[in-house]
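Bench log, entry 3. Co-assembly request; chain sequences pasted below exactly as received.
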Amino acid sequence: MMTLFLSSVALLLATGLAALFSRKGSLVAVGGCVIAGILGLIPVLASLFASAAFTFRIGWDVPFGAFSLEIDPLSAFFLLPVFLLSPMAALYGQAYLKSQGGHVKSWFFWNSLVASMAVLVAARNAVLFLVAWEIMSLCSFFLVVCEHRHAESRRAGWIYLVSTHLGTAFIVALFFLLGNSAHSFDFSEFIQAGIVSSPAATLLFFLSVVGFGTKAGFVPFHVWLPEAHPAAPSHVSALMSGVMIKMGIYGLVRTLTFFNTYPFSWAAVLIAVGALSGILGVLFAIAQHDVKRLLAYHSVENIGIITLGLGIGLLGTSLQLPFVAVIGFAGGLLHVLNHAVFKSLLFLGAGAVALRAGTRDMDHLGGLLKRMPRTGVTFFIGAAAIAGIPPLNGFVSELLIFYAGFDSIVQGSAPVVAATVAAVAALGLIGGLAVACFTKVFGIVFLGEPRSPQAEQAQEADVLMTGPMLVLASLCGVIAVTSPLILGVFKGILPGLTHLSAAACSFRLDRAAHTLEGFLVAAGAVVVMTAVLFWARRCLLTGRPQTVVATWDCGYVKPSARMQYTSSSFAQPLVDLFAPVLRTHKHLEAPAGHFPSIASVRTHTADVFRRLLFDPLFAAVQRALIAGHFLQHGRVHLYVLYIALTLLILFAVKLQ
Amino acid sequence: MIRLTTQMALLRLAAALVLAPLLFGVITRTQALFAGRKGQPLLQMYFDIAKLMRKGAAISRTTTWVFRLGPIVGLACVATGCLLTPFAGFPALISFPGDFVVLAALLALMRFVTVSAALDTGSSFEGMGASREVQFSALAEPALLVSFAVLARQTGALSMSDMFAQVSVIFWHQAAPSFILVLAALFIVFLAENARIPFDDPNTHLELTMVHEVMVLDHGGPDLGFILYGSALKMWVLGALIVNIVIPIHEASTWPDIFLFIMGMLLLAVAVGVVESVMARLRLLHVPQLLVGAVGLAILALMLMLGA
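Structure output for the full assembly:
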């Protein structure tokens, strides 16, 4: 099995190299990515369904390093999106980039990114993990600046590079401390070292939340997401948002398995971080006009939902509420897979729209469902799935998290109830706001009349682009329908997290499967009744007059597309309601005089955390560093003096 | 999870499907009584729906399949909601732990398709209604879920059927203040979700103040019939949640229970009529405050319960 995995990684790297040296390299690289995906899925599925672990280890001439790989069910679960989504996004990207001038060399970074994520998830040595982590960060940086001729892309890439490395610094510190206490950098030693909860353990937990949270996009470390995703080509955004940010979640979950017990406060921290990320993510999303920026904020929201699930699971583990622990973790982890599917689908759809209609600004789009029917249908399904609407997959994982939350409300003591009610209320609010946000996106972009000539002339994207979207959209339904079966894979994953036996996990998962079956019966009832009503409507209308007319606008005879509600006006009540948080800038040119001619309103919602936290922080750091500017003057002979002095001091220290 | 205790389950479902439009008749009659008018016939909604079913349709050329999907899926959602909701203290047809979350999600699906259908017309009126609808519902959802959290905590049950079967006179003795607060929260959610005063005025069809009515401005014929019937069923389902708490007495026999329950539903309709007669619509800016207040009431109920 590991041979398949290693050959998959090797194939990715080899075909990636081909893209560097050959003009036709993109075809080779994409083909390699697809075959590697199929090869990689075999050990992944084998591990998931048999709850088995496959290992591979060879020596490695790196200090403290070992080339130690293992695919256990937890790794396999995170490898699933890597191998499932990257081929589809690659096929789409091949067609997408063709119209953007090729960018053949970017496929080297693409394949390396996929390979590095695969190695990262399978790595069982901290040094190997960090090397893969760094390759992943660098490759994704080069993909973000793929369209480097745009200043916007370069700026976004810079923000991403800085924030990802700040995050990495915390992870390095985390592994350094772990390795120091375990006297080894192998993950198995970390577990055996039996790190008990103590102030030192809480420091480790804090480091992992900040370090991995920066990659995952926890508020307030999310600032790079809304910059990087719009700047990157759409298939890159799909891979980064669907798969790469989940590597942060993987890191956090893997770190949790190193601990024997979890204090209640950790659970409270995760629930708070999750609620904050979820609510602020969706609020900022609502206020955006750029569809890809909006989707980027929704990644923050969904990471928040995942974290809420993990937090409730942690809570259950720390207070010995086994059902809460099992179902909370299961819901959070299932949402990882679900978000990977529908978020890549939505980014691919948004890319097709941007390509064909020439803009990402929702206020210039509209009526695309008629012009791009396949993109429209798949986007509709993705939008419903991400908004947590039954009968699609997004709701299934949210239902599990709710179930765990309500169970802990029934069983827990007062502080537990307080924490979970906060989680449940936050999840409810997030769900309601997500419906608002995605009816806005779908309604404004795909329905109504086109708001610009480009949108009017938009055409359906080609088959290589719509094909992957159709597959992903059907996956949204398939995951939901098979969810009671999918729950079975968690019995191999959860013992390490909940410290329960596999049988104990399995017992609780069966209880949750019972609820999911009930949900599927209800969903089936909706589908059947929809079909019956559809048929009834058809029967009622046969033989009766059906006329096609203009939309009723109070008798006004010349309606124009500009009279429609826009994304800004649709969002305005919510944006105003949450104005203290969002701090939207409004430039209003009000109509004046008895015969007003010009009036306009523009709104802009900048990221509050960037403006009020990071910008001042970095400005202060810059001011502090400028004070040391006199050291850097460009005189080479003085630099040589610095080197000589440093050597002398080191020598003196050593002599002591 | 499908429980067919007797054919009575189907009978109660049939009662819901048949009697739901009557609630609207009771509400308008109550309002007429307050205004000193004679008012519409009690069965006016039945006549309206029957008339609409026999009509053709005029459909905007801007629209797509989404517009036609809205009323159909919306009605299917609330009809499924009837299957999930227990009536008269008996278990629902489909019952499983966490079913109330599915009920809330079905309402979200209904909202999703209704709002999408409204935006499909490209009309600024319908866009306006859609925009307000999603804002209010986003705030109503946490209130509904926290109310269920209170009920779950008090009864120790996680399915609606078990919850409402447990609500009894003893529970009212133990935690009356919590129950009253939850009822208040649920009543606010009930008024908001059913687009009643003080959230929305169902009688103003063409004014800028309306929310729900304006979203269905372009629907006609059977589509509008589906929408009207769907809103009646939605009122029945959400009303049943309130009545199931208010009437904790369960005679073991079926008929008195069903009679009592239906009386309760009609009284709820009278209460809505009274509220509509003595109150004006709230200013739109104040609507969110009331909904946040509902969340606050539910949380307060939970705190009282934990403190007790």
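The longest strand of chain A covers residues 54-58. The radius of gyration of chain A is 26 Å.
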